[in-house]
Amino acid sequence: MNDLFNSIFLEVSARTSNLFQGSLKENIVFIHIPKCGGSSISKALKSCYATWDIRDRNLCHLDAAASLKAAQKLIDRDLSSSRVDDPVVLKLRENLLVYFMCRENVNYITGHLVFSSVAHRHFKENYAFITILRDPVKRWISEYFYNRYKSHEHCKIDMEIEEYLDSEFGQAQGHKYVTFLGGNHEIGDYSPEQAVNQAKENLHKFALIGFLEYPEKFLKQFEDRFGRKLRIRSLNRNPKSKKHQSSVITEKILEKIQRICQPDLEISFGFFLKFFQ
Fold first, then answer.
1. How far apart are CA 8 and CA 100, in angstroms?
2. Among candidate residues 11, 36, 45, the one with its CA nearest the CA of residue 236
């Protein structure tokens, strides 16, 4: 009940504040990488634009599950929920992103979107790109437990962690940053090294990148860049406690996760050093 009351209070407070001081002047695309605290950040960013026109026509949120279903219909075949990073799905999401950006009076766009060089090239003067990263190993662990024990079916898995580690889906989670930051490409277009380098290059095209482990620094950078304070609250809490997760992640399992996450570790480490310069 307290969470519901706080949510309503923050929503009313944000809309009222925007009524008097105006919405955030600059438009934003928030690339929401799964299990990097994106739901909380996205909610805070949305509140910078929300008005008392509760239709919120200036806000666009891509529905991940709907985009998967749409991609399946376009190619007339099933894609399991473990194929949410299939090039067909990612290309559809990129097309939708460009469509949203072409609409008039759209101030904020978010969702599990990959970075689009096309969108950046044509709209970099109109939209600032933002994303949040976290330690890739922690992100991998969090995503496993969330998808294993969550209540809804989209991307839900039914595997013990040992089986998941060896699965195609589990292996793919080790290069999430490669996928989301490198941008959509057909299979075979990039070698693994080229894909990592492309992701590193694209990081420099973002107006702001934060790290989940250091929220205060991100909030300070956001305020300096956009002149607005963000109010962040925790959303999409993991169904399993840290204690439970620690009891499952043995040293041997952790070492295997670290190997799987090497591409993302390479991408995030270099930018992490820049983050603290």
1. 27
2. 36
**pLDDT tens digit sequence for 76-114:** 888 765 566 788 888 999 999 999 999 999 999 999 999
**Residue among 110, 118, 92 nearest 31 (CA):** 110
pTM of the model: 0.88
Tokens, residue 29: 């695309």
* Separation of alpha carbons 212 and 193, rounded Å: 26
Q: What is the rounded distance in angstroms from the CA atom of residue 237 to the CA atom of residue 275? A: 26
Q: First and final CA of the chain: distance in angstroms? A: 42
Tokens of residue 244, six digits: 């439970």
- Specify the residue for token string 């190997």: 259
Q: How far is CA 187 from CA 85, 141, 192, 195, in A?
A: 11, 26, 11, 11
Tokens of 93: 């999401």
Beta strands in 71-219 (DSSP E): 108-111, 127-133, 208-211
Would you state the pLDDT for residue 123? 97
**How does DSSP classify residue 165?**
H
Q: What are phi and psi of 31, to 5 degrees?
A: -80, 110
